[in-house]
Amino acid sequence: MKKMSAFSLCVSLSILFISCNKIDWRPPTDCEVQQFGQPGGILYSGPSLGPYPYLFSKTFDRDGNVETIDAYLFSLGIDFNLKARFSLKGQTLYCLQRDNIADTFMIVQLNAKGRPVKAVETRSPAPSNPVVSAMQYDFTYNKNRLFSITAKNRFTSYSPDTCTYDNAGNLVNLGRTDNYEYDLTQKPKQQFYFDAENTGSFFYGLHFLEYLNFFPEITSPVNVRTKHRVGRSFNGTYFLNYDLVNHKFDAKGKLISYDYGYNFNKFTTPIIYNCNGGGNSAK
Question: In angstroms, rounded to a whole number, what is the distance separating the alpha carbons of residues 197 and 199?
Fold first, then answer.
């Protein structure tokens, strides 16, 4: 199983916070995914924002530490964007609105290995939409590998979604709603996959943490991912069957694009990396 990827953050805060705290998890590679998607892309399109230029885009300081993220989130006909910066105090990560750091929209408790064990949305991530409620997520691990996700809000407590893996360490099932297939003959140096349909409805906080690469089991498997099935019914069939094809890699073995979709509706998804704090690579 691929170890947890980089998540390094340093934030210049106002008088609300006394000092700058650098979050520095050393990655197994030298690169952090900087942008997923491209300007003018049509894969990320919803009723409120229309076509959005990317799934997420991050900014970095001179040392290569992530400072901010502009994230697009959508599910079941609801879409919005979050522009965030971060503050770390002990093992608690505060996710703040980038343009209003008095607005803390999510608090994440980390374990000694830097992995989330609890994430609490302090308000709805889409406050203008009454359908979207603030969620709480609890995460468990087995030998530092994601084992279960449990979510609840003021209306509903969801059953835990547990993870199963193949012998190579790839995530095969997440609960009963998500199933993945792989090409076991290909083992890239680094990759990242779009997974916004993951686990079903309105789990925006989970998707946001995926964008920050807190769950490489979901977004960065060991082998090349070739299929993602979503929404399993009681008769065992899936409502959505996505094919992941036409994977392209740079000379160092990093995944730099693939096509994602179903039937004839497939969209190319470029991936841009920030390596060694030295700017973009693998466009």
Answer: 6
* Best CA proximity match to 76, nearest among 216, 207, 211, 267: 207
Is residue 34, in this structure, part of any structural domain at all? yes
175 domain-assigned = yes
What tens digit of pLDDT does each residue of 40-55 get?
Answer: 444 554 545 556 678 8
Q: Across-strand partners of 154?
A: none
The C-alpha torsion from 62 through 65 and 69 to 75, rounded to 10°, is 150
- ∠ CA 159-180-215 to the nearest 5 degrees? 65
H-state helical runs in 151-238 = 204-211, 216-219
Asked if the structure places residue 141 within a domain, the reply is yes
> Contact, 73 vs 208, CB < 8 A?
yes
Largest CA distance in the chain: 56
Whole-prediction pTM: 0.81
| Of the candidates 203, 199, 193, the residue with the CA atom closest to the CA atom of residue 170 | 193
Cα 166 from Cα 113, distance rounded (Å)? 23
Identify any residues that bridge with 150 across adjacent strands, giving them in sequence order: 138
CATH of the domain at 274: 2.40.160
- Please give the structure tokens belonging to residue 109: 């408790």
Q: How many domains are contained in the chain? A: 1
Q: Give residue for tokens 């992995």.
A: 115
pLDDT tens track for 112-168: 998 999 999 988 766 666 667 788 999 999 989 999 999 998 888 888 999 999 999
Q: Are 226 and 219 in contact (CB under 8 A)?
A: no
Start-to-end C-alpha separation, the chain: 26
The residue segments making up the domain with residue 220 are 7-281
In-domain check, residue 257:
yes
